[in-house]
Amino acid sequence: MKTPCFCPETTLPIQQQVKKGEWNFYLDPVYLVAIVDFVLDEDRNDSQVLCSIQLKDQTCRVFFDKLTLLYIELPKFNKREEALETTSDKWACTCSSICLTCKTARGRCKSGFFSASLRRRR
Length: 122
What we know:
The protein is an alpha+beta fold. The protein is built from three helices and three strands, in the order H-E-E-E-H-H. Helices cover 34% and strands 21% of the residues. It is elongated and about 55 Å long.
């Protein structure tokens, strides 16, 4: 299982809402939407493309409802263009196409800006 992380980008918007002095528990919610090209939990045999994660306590009750991580797992999306029904389907299809295009381009590009930017990310 690949472990999703709570990256600093998710806590910064919460910190920015807090004013010095008294703590205000009425914060606006923060969502992180991550489009990933891998399956988070390969042991789980489900076909859900969207994985929603929140902080929960030992009794599985939501501990902090102001932070939600949404992972879109592209390998689980396998609809063909003619089978797309919802806006979510269309977005997932678009993201899958972009990911596939990047992988194909990565294999073909030997020089130039695209190739150099890919080397920097590794």
